[in-house]
Write a structure and sequence with these properties.
elongated; about 35% strand; about 170 residues; 7 strands; single chain
């Protein structure tokens, strides 16, 4: 069976496009239902204290997921009449795996009667998947007045202005 060159070229082009494809962007929104759905959720622990979680989609950068958790905490602080918040605890989890570039070398030999041969092969693979999914949970405590000079304390208005600007929202 003879395969035409245009068909081979089209197939290779399709594979290259698939290799370059990325996951849909992670948008900033509330989770719609299941705990593994992309988006934020919060749980009020007590007055002025929440646990905020943002679940990113496959391939979303870990920094983006962390920023979106901070953004939700800032929105909650402002909604409840507070000026700043402090991150009292934080954790990041990941699921899935990263199918990044790989390289392998292999060899083999065969014998056919009086003839023998030796072969050497080199193989590569590229990231065809979106990568792992990250989830960031933070426990935050809200406060009023001047923001404390602490690396874990954030001005809620500044976070909304800086992190919230330009975010993708559905």
């Amino acid at each position: 069976m003879k395969i035409s060159k245009p068909l081979v070229a089209a197939a290779l082009s399709g594979l290259l496009l698939a290799a370059c494809a990325t996951a849909a962007p992670t948008t900033y929104r509330a989770q719609l239902g299941s705990p593994n759905d992309v988006g934020y959720s919060e749980y009020r622990l007590e007055a002025g204290r929440y646990r905020v979680t943002f679940q990113g989609g496959p391939g979303a950068p870990e920094a983006q997921v962390a920023d979106y958790a901070l953004l939700r905490a800032a929105e909650l602080a402002l909604r409840d009449g507070y000026d700043w918040f402090r991150v009292a605890d934080r954790s990041t989890t990941s699921s899935g795996y990263d199918r990044g570039p790989r390289m392998s070398v292999g060899g083999g030999s065969a014998s056919f009667g009086r003839r023998s041969s030796v072969g050497l092969g080199v193989g590569t693979s590229f990231n065809l998947g979106p990568g792992p999914s990250f989830s960031r949970s933070i426990e935050v405590v809200f406060g009023k007045g001047a923001t404390p000079r602490d690396r874990d304390a954030y001005d809620a208005r500044d976070v909304v202005k800086n992190v919230g600007y330009g975010r993708q929202r559905t």
